[in-house]
Design a protein that fits this description.
The complex is a heterotrimer of chains A (about 170), B (about 170) and C (about 425). Chain B is of the alpha/beta class and about 170 residues long. Helices cover about 25% and strands about 25% of the residues of chain B. Chain B has helices at about 5-15, 35-45, 110-120, 160-170, and strands at about 20-25, 25-30, 55-60, 70-80, 85-90, 100, 125. In chain B, the strands form two sheets. Chain B has a five-stranded mixed sheet with strand order 1-2-5-4-3. Chain B has a two-stranded parallel ribbon with strand order 6-7. The relative contact order of chain B is 0.12. Chain C is built from 16 helices and eleven strands. In chain C, helix 4 (about 95-110) runs antiparallel to helix 5, helix 5 runs antiparallel to helix 6 (about 150-170) and helix 5 packs antiparallel against helix 15 (about 400-410). Chain C is globular. The chains are: A alpha/beta (about 170), B alpha/beta (about 170), C alpha+beta (about 425). Chains in contact: A-B, A-C, B-C. Chains B and C meet through strand 1, strand 2, strand 3 and helix 3 of B and helix 2, helix 9, strand 8, helix 13 and strand 9 of C.
Amino acid sequence: MALILDTLTEPVEVEEGVKVVPAANTIIMPIAKLASWGKRSSIWPVTFGLACCAIEMMATGASHYDLDRFGIIFRASPRQSDVMIIAGTVTKKMAPIIVNLYHQMAEPRYVIAMGSCACSGGVFNTYSTVQGVDSFLPVDVYIPGCPPRPEALLDGIIKFQELIKQEPYKQRKR
Amino acid sequence: MQSSDIVNLLKEKFSKEILCTVYFRGDCTIIIKRDKAKEILKFLKETPSLDFDYLIDVTGVDYMGARQPRFNVVYHLMSIKNANRIRVKVEVPEEDCWVETVSDLWATANWHERECFDMFGIEFKGHPDLRRILMPEDWEGYPLRKDYPVGSDLGDKEWKTFKDILQQTKERA
Amino acid sequence: MIKNGKLLRIFYSKPRSVHNNMEREITATKELIVNMGPQHPATHGVLRLVLDVDGERIIKCTPYVGYLHRGIEKLSEDLTYVQALPLTDRLDYLASAANNIGFCVAIEKLLGLEVPPRAKFIRTIMGEMARICSHLVWIATHALDIGAMTVFLYAMRDREVFLDLFEMVTGARMTVSYPRVGGVRCDVNNEFLDKLYKFIETFPEKVVEYETLIDQNRIWLKRTKGVGIITAEEAINWGLTGPTLRGSGVYYDVRKFFPYDAYDKVDFEVPLGKNCDVYDRYKCRMLEFRQSARIIKQCIDKLPEGPILANEAMKIRMPSAPVKIDKKDIQVEIYIDDKAIEEFVQKYSEVYASVEVPKGELGFYVVCDGTAKPYRLRLRSPSFVHAGALKKLCEGGLVADVIANIGSIDLVLGECDR
């Protein structure tokens, strides 16, 4: 990593597309990069724990595996959130409510399927269970596990951040 | 109080309704006919020496093909004072599928009987609010019967709301 | 109104009799139906409550459950006894070892299996660790809902230690599937016992930490004392069990009444409440923390050497092996003239066994038809019964008390809906 003197008045390229002018305390970057940096550093999920995976999500949000350091704050209302982490088994009775909540989220909105039940139905191939939430919702990240360890959830969230980083800056119509 | 004493007390009063008694691993099961089921349960609850004031569970079993009548409604009772349990099984035929409710004796029977109705289709006469509890209200079929499929893909018999959601997803794709 | 020394305007109020009927109608309150939907931060899962409120008073409360009904009872008819064990993990996922123990106790009662003593003590340790884990999540979420947010972080911090201990022995943090029919899956080593013993010695001080935060707090007392009162007779009639029942002063604990595992070899007390309200149920569970620590210490001290799985347990592992029940164990008395009923009763043997899980009494009613798969597996879950009693607890109270009541009955929807 190059040392940057504080008194330089020329723009220095620190990353692809990102230039810094130290003396003027300025960072020059394309809006797309700025927007994606903002979006991926402040992911606000809607509290949507259904079953056992919700407890591991709570444990990840607690102090041992902190989620707050990623900028993640759980919001109770879908209107104020970006992502819905579906943690737990999705039943057919619950499906219309999930669709409702999904449509209440403002765009750009994402879905993370956490746990085997949300990914594919898990152990429960029964009359009342949906075999994977991707039958009726577009899923961005799948996190397998029964339940996935907090480290696995963090790994999934980091992959999700990389996904946002690589997204082109145009209206995401989902 | 021993299980055999309880059975003797019952036999004195309701000799025609009790079909048989089974003692297995410390459990006592009494199989009775449907006619005076509620009175027998009321007798078990209100007799001071028996005092079965606690209803643990009301459930059903489907003996399709193995026994006529097809269903059994199983009541598990317990007496906290005497620390003993008893199981009462009421035989319910398939064509005339009803049993009298006990939700006025034990308030907890309300939800247990609703679940039994939801899963087996057994009607509880006199129940204040008999509707489905675990499945959606307009679900068709009784899941815990032996002729109901276990898999997730119900084909044409799928619940209408869920079918609509899948249809809308396909159209949007 | 006097401004800058000048009298600007004189305000006077009309006497009350002049207000006409239309104004009175507009300002009167009327009943409102509020939906506390399946997605709610304080319902501890997917519980839906439809509340008829008049101002802040609840007139009618209707719980709707079933949003997490996964069909475990139907699925277990399709799997062998050993394959159905991991399904019971996912009932009350906070204390999964306790559910497994219940299933194992029921199947062992059915088969007449004798569990070796070492396995009994290990299972008791696991059951009590599960109880502590579940109560930790209970106090974390109950206090969080009522507003005491720090307790959540403290309790989850301590729960991580227990989850590490579970992982050391069983390989999984939450859904362990460790107790097996006839004993346990694998043995515990001294490293686990040392770590557990050391932590358990300091654990009662940690419980004091949580209590310091809330126990004498005026807001906590105002929100939990006198709220959600259900008398002892009503509690028995509504089928409550566990700390929810003991908060009303009824002495009923499955570990004392119908002992299983090593509970008759350790001594512990069962805390009872007096005032039948949310505060007493909270106090019962806080005292249960200490009693669980006491049981674990005694079990570690008394842990005998020996095998951890009964020999006969190997027989039911084969998917094709039928489960044989000795006909001599079944005593039948038939009072009518019907030959079919004797064969029927000899073929379909059934048991009911229950354990004291952290929520209450978890009962397993197993009907066995001689094949390797259960004919009917009924799970009598305490949360289902308690959710039904929510109607009784909430009606007549305030809207804010609904949250306190849901927390005090310690509802877990996975167990309620199965």
